[in-house]
Amino acid sequence: MAVEVENMVDLADLSKEDLLALVDLALAYQDGQAVPTLKRAVSVANLFFENSTRTVTSFQMAEQRLGLQRFDVNVNGSSVKKGESLADTVKTVQAIGMDLAVIRHTQTGWYKDLVQDDRIQLSMVNAGDGAGVHPSQTLLDLMTIKKAFGHFQGIRVAIVGDLSHSRVAKSDAKIFKELGMELTFAGPKAWWSEDLAAYGSFKMVDELLPEVDVFMCLRVQLERMQAAGVATYTASDYHEAYGLTKERAKHLKDSAIIMHPAPVNRGVEIDSDLVESEHSRIFAQMQNGVYARMAILSRILEKRGLVEKKS
């Protein structure tokens, strides 16, 4: 019997109903809902071609909690170093017996050709593609906002920082807008991305502070910048001009929350004292990430017919 291939490469591929159901499933897991029973042993390969702490470990934890057989592939010691393509690497782990592959790659849109390849029958999960999208991060961000406010409609979100290089900004903006949130953006004008113009306006950071319910800081991604941009950047200047300082934080609403996809550069995007303040949800986001990734993997397992039906 042919297996239905279910991938999770971009949340924008889901209907609004399916997206909200995924948020609810993640929250249910966090509240103690039992994981599904697997029909057989299920194997997953983690292929991280880009450095990661939160995403890789939370996927590993999610896989463990779901009872999956986990294989963490050391890509630095793999045949990729001998010139093997990503497509052939995926086909290799499929041939060895993997049902799923969780992939983070520096190439934006790495999955676009692979999902069209009928020879690839395992399910692929996008754990971040270059400056593209980051589906599981967006899902955990939705969880964080839902837990704080109980809904999405009309929530005002500011996304501040390195907008041109951030897959989180692009990934979140489209989905947030679809769910009824109102977005504004801030940061260095040179780092503004016109791709975001469809989702909200660009403002000065001090102008938007009193308006927002969510202040989301973005990491400055020097590794993705051209040499000229790196040469003119200093952490102290950035913090003073665009960072969430303690003085700026005083202008936020009492009910506002602070978010950051991490890793956090303390004293750059955000004052160190604010990282674990009462308004901060930064470490809560990380905790939510385990349940978000459990929900994503569960959806794939169900679509593939690998879980027992509820009686």
From TrEMBL:
Protein's UniProt name: Aspartate carbamoyltransferase
Record-listed E.C. numbers: 2.1.3.2
Task performed by this protein: Catalyzes the condensation of carbamoyl phosphate and aspartate to form carbamoyl aspartate and inorganic phosphate, the committed step in the de novo pyrimidine nucleotide biosynthesis pathway.
Keyword Transferase: yes
Pathway(s): Pyrimidine metabolism; UMP biosynthesis via de novo pathway; (S)-dihydroorotate from bicarbonate: step 2/3
Family: Belongs to the aspartate/ornithine carbamoyltransferase superfamily. ATCase family.
Boundaries of every Aspartate/ornithine carbamoyltransferase Asp/Orn-binding domain copy: 153-298
Gene name, Swiss-Prot/TrEMBL: pyrB
Pfam families documented for this protein: OTCace (PF00185), OTCace_N (PF02729)
Enzyme class: transferase
UniProt organism field: Fructobacillus papyrifericola
